[in-house]
Queue: 4 jobs
Job 1
Amino acid sequence: MKSSGPSPVITIAEQPGCLLVKFHGIQVAASARALVLLEANYPPVYYVPREDIDEKYYARTDHTSYCPYKGDASYFSLQIPGHEGANAVWSYEDPKVSVEQIRGYVAFYPDQVTFELLKDV
């Protein structure tokens, strides 16, 4: 029987500065309260509080996924005139206890959006 191996180390930290998230040049989120999640050999993932997103650009989809370390993820598409980023955003609405900090936050696929970090806020 194959072992699933040890759980990856996940760290979550506050991201200093103000994180701007843009989709085709349109700002869809801005937050001075963003978190950065580091997991195993994956690239860093920015999480932004839902209060800091511009909801008019987000549409919930039926897509879901499951991570054994974080829980069930719900997805959103980004929509602006002429462009749609299908399932470009996800959220763990009821995350595992070990990553409770990301409750109420959303994350973005970096190939769908651009990030800009303003250090002096």
Job 2
Amino acid sequence: MRQEEQANTHVMFDTNAHEHLDGLIQWATKKGYPDSSLNLVGCRDGRWFIEVDFGREFDLIEGISKPYQSPYVEPLFFPTDDAARAFAYDAIKRVHPEVEGVNLEDYWDED
């Protein structure tokens, strides 16, 4: 799907916050900049969801927003950023099983 044909989740879900997780993935894997990454996205109504930022490694994980796929399937929504972040951590560990034993929360302590 071309960029101009992507689902505009910012408008669809009235988003007002997002956090790129590429730095977290790079930190956890120690492999350099990742081929794929996620965003933690907040909505004005308080819901949170996870969306692919770039790449295709997360394509097979249900519940993640993939605005470039047609037809677009709505993501799972979470009541808090912590719940959405936990879902993102699980997805990251599925794509990068080498970080299974890594406490991804430690990344935030280093910033």
Job 3
Amino acid sequence: MKVVVAITGASGLILGQRLVEVLAAQKKKPYTIVSDAALKISEYEPFDLERVRSLSVELFKENQLEAALASSSFGVDAMVIAPCSMKTLASVANGLSDNLISRAAENVLKLDKKLVVAPRDTPLSLNAIENMRKLKLQNVSIVPPNIAYYIKPKTVDDLTNFFAGKILDALGIENNLYRRWG
């Protein structure tokens, strides 16, 4: 299974890193794209770029439009953008293929493959809600990292695993990252 993980400049970079870690552990090493803004945010949040690089088939920066991922003929099976900034959400929703992240997402959409976005912002503006609506109309799974209190999280890792598990669920990838209800 060819999976792309895009990590953008919204807070919550550890979520993208955890997805890369879990996919690699399941023998589904992803192709990973990191935005310039994510690299800036990484100065303030836990994020290990070298670990992400080592667990990826290949690591790309968002300006690498010559990369194979920029072409729909590369043929990925699924893509997740986590965390997904509102800028990236708007770009994907409105078909602005102006960097490798939005271009890869456009390719996934036009081939009717699975796209999951984890928008990480609150509160939401009407523009953000409209952009999410546009994506949902294209069968994109929108998985905002909202806290589930029933899991009784004790650490940030508990929350990160819950969010990553929910995203993997949306991708159709089995996992046991969180305690399920019931």
Job 4
Amino acid sequence: MQSSQSRPEALAAGGQVSDGSPEPPPLDPARHALFLDVDGTLAEICPEPSQVAVPPATVAALAALQRALDGALAILSGRSGAAIDLLLQPLRLPYGANHGAEFRRADGQARRLEPSAALPGIVAALRQRAAGWPGVLVESKPLGVAVHYRMAPPRERDVHDLVHEVAAAHDGQFDVLTGKMVYELKPHGVDKGRALREFMRAAPFAGRVPVMAGDDLTDESAFAAAQEAGGFGIKIGPGDSIAPWRLSGPPELARWLQALRAKAGAIQ
């Protein structure tokens, strides 16, 4: 997802839009750090967030790659930290959850922003307004709220206007993110690019070359951060992106991860 700007921040800042090459290069386990989104990247997008599942073979590949990369593997997602752990169990990977508002380091130390006192009232108001829009789903998160219209596409303008109205009424506490059939309120000033940069300042990520894979507009800030540090982004699925590489969807990413796992095993 992206902020309420008409283009992703990285593109507006002059990043070049790329159609993406069909296959990203293999990674060097001794040199690279890997960052991954979840929905639409490790897992297919579903009508309801609760229906999403990461294939067990992909979880096994992540476990092997975490070892091969000496721990330099992290998740950057709009989901909560608890939801990430549930989807990837038994793995407990470092994460920048809720777009970086929740952060767990490789050593297990975690911190998160305090939720706004206004959030419960916002969620209740959104649910009340959306109750008359069949198919519109209000997803409460620990630090924000998402309003999905995947099952009610004609309501896109209504959802857009409602979420922006709520954001405007709360004095800059929240940013509006625009994603695939969803508008979301997140704490002001956090994004995946900042989370990636924070990871890269500490072991085991420091000194490595970052690679980020993601499917949505909020991943663009992380692509930009990776490229600033000499790495690159991998766009999953269609759409404009500054990422120079592209894979068609989660199944193709899973195959790429399995190939990395096999290569790392051969090296070790």
